[in-house]
Write a structure and sequence with these properties.
With about 190 residues, the protein is mainly alpha-helical. The protein contains eight helices and no strands. The protein has two domains: about 30 residues; about 130 residues, Cytochrome c-like domain (Cytochrome Bc1 Complex, Chain D, domain 2). About 40% of the residues lie in helices and about 0% in strands. Helix 3 crosses helix 7 and helix 5 packs across helix 7.
Length: about 190
């Protein structure tokens, strides 16, 4: 290889590098990101939970829970349960995942699955999981039980989807109970996200 060919090769490499630098400078001038006042992004986290623990007065235009449960569809509920499958299992005697196994959840005491480490907020919540309680909880877990580990789940905003999910969860038992609720006062639970 003579020196003239070596000069052509080195010239091509140098020209390519200069073109890349020129393109970088030109694109930086055209598409420059704005200067941030401070580095990073601020995430708003509420300091205290509301005094009413997420309870809201019933809305007059809300659809009653009984009506939504009457239209509930098991297949749609099973499909909606896939949102829960990332953390929960559904089979009888199944292992706990990031969340407790949901087999037999209807009527079960809160925070009672053996071997699962519940948040202090869930342990302190007490009571049993009823259809209205679960509907309200899956709408917005962080609002219903402030401090729950399930606060990372944003909730299920659509009322009918929550009713479908309740229909499916109700079947996860050796002796499923009735799906309807006895009072007609459960209106707000399904209407709000």
């Amino acid at each position: 290889m003579n020196s003239f060919e070596m000069n052509k090769i080195l010239g091509a490499i140098l020209t390519t590098c200069l073109c890349v630098v020129a393109l970088n400078i030109a694109s930086g001038a055209i598409f420059s990101p704005p200067e941030l006042a401070k580095p990073g992004y601020e995430i708003a986290v509420p300091d205290k939970a509301p005094a009413d623990h997420g309870q809201q007065p019933p809305q007059p235009d809300a659809v009653p829970l009984d009506q939504l449960l009457a239209k509930a569809d098991l297949e749609r509920g099973q499909s909606s349960a896939q949102k829960c499958a990332a953390c929960h299992t559904f089979n009888k005697g199944g292992p706990n995942g990031l969340g407790p196994n949901l087999w037999g959840i209807m009527g079960r005491a809160r925070g009672s699955v053996a071997g699962f480490n519940y948040s202090p907020a869930m342990k302190a919540a007490g009571g049993q999981w009823s259809v209205p309680e679960l509907v309200d909880f899956v709408a917005n877990p962080a609002m219903k039980v402030p401090g729950t580990f399930m606060a990372i789940f944003g909730g299920i905003p659509r009322a009918q989807e929550r009713a479908d999910l309740m229909a499916y969860l109700n079947t996860l038992s050796d002796n499923p109970g009735p799906l309807s609720i006895s009072t007609g006062t459960q209106r707000a639970d399904l209407s709000r996200p």
